[in-house]
Write a sequence for this structure.
């Protein structure tokens, strides 16, 4: 992992988990810490509402935050970081994210609260390493026209409605037909997303630096439908084989999505720009796995 580029950081965006009232005193302290170093704190609008009123505070809407800062500090959990990662990617930017977890160690927000200021100092001075994470670009086509575009860090998930029968999906890699999946759904995941829904569905864990995508059926009808690892250079095409009563949905990082219709086609592949994740700690990926998954514990 190379160090952060030596571009001077003059503005840091700050995003906290919604309604996380425990973060309020830390937000004030972070602002004062940055101001003492000549750096402007730009608070996401909802995050700023958690703090005591102040007339001079700089704020921005979440979708606008990436366009007016050089890095973003996320305070919360992995879901909060996912939401900001998607905003940055939608803006076509590569500004780095530093994630601080307000709970236990996270897969993405792996900096703990006691490590906050040491990690922030490394980030703003260019002393932290940066890791690029592959992201997904998805499109949904209906009647020859694109009806939805989305970027995701973890996964694109095609699922049935809660009370629907299993769904039938024709899956292609590139132009080659792979299989028909009859299951509760299909997960198309990045290596980063391999420890999310993919892991719960029985898919393998991939190191984040592996250049690959995962195709993992959810509760397949046939036990021979197993997870597949494919090169990230290959686009995945999925065609739902639907009957009138079927209800099929696609979601992206659990943040957004839509209901699919008969004849729709889903294309999922590598996004043009990766996520830049700041890694100030010396924890290895396997150390994080051991901590989160409690490997070796009784």
């Amino acid at each position: 992992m190379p160090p952060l580029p030596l571009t001077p950081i003059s503005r840091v965006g700050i995003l906290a988990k919604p309604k996380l009232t425990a973060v309020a005193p830390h937000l004030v302290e972070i602002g004062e810490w940055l101001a003492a170093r000549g750096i402007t704190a730009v608070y996401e609008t909802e995050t700023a509402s958690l703090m005591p009123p102040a007339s001079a505070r700089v704020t921005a809407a979440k979708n606008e935050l990436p366009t007016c800062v050089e890095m973003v500090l996320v305070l919360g959990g992995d879901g909060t970081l996912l939401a900001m990662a998607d905003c940055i990617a939608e803006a076509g930017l590569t500004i780095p994210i530093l994630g601080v977890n307000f709970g236990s160690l996270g897969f993405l927000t792996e900096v703990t609260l006691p490590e906050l200021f040491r990690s922030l100092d490394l980030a703003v001075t260019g002393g932290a390493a940066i890791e690029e994470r592959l992201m997904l670009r998805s499109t949904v086509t209906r009647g020859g026209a694109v009806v939805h575009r989305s970027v995701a860090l973890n996964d694109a998930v095609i699922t049935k409605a809660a009370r629907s029968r299993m769904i039938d999906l024709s899956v292609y890699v590139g132009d080659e037909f792979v299989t028909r999946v009859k299951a509760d759904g299909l997960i198309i995941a990045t290596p980063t997303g391999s420890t999310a829904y993919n892991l719960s569905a029985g898919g393998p864990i991939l190191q984040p630096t592996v250049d690959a995508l995962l195709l993992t059926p959810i509760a397949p009808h046939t036990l021979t439908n197993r997870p597949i690892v494919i090169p990230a250079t290959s686009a995945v095409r999925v065609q739902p084989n639907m009957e009138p009563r079927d209800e099929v949905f696609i979601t992206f990082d659990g943040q957004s999505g839509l209901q699919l219709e008969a004849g729709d086609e889903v294309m999922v592949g590598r996004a043009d720009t990766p996520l830049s994740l700041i890694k100030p700690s010396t924890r290895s990926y396997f150390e994080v796995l051991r901590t989160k998954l409690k490997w070796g514990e009784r």
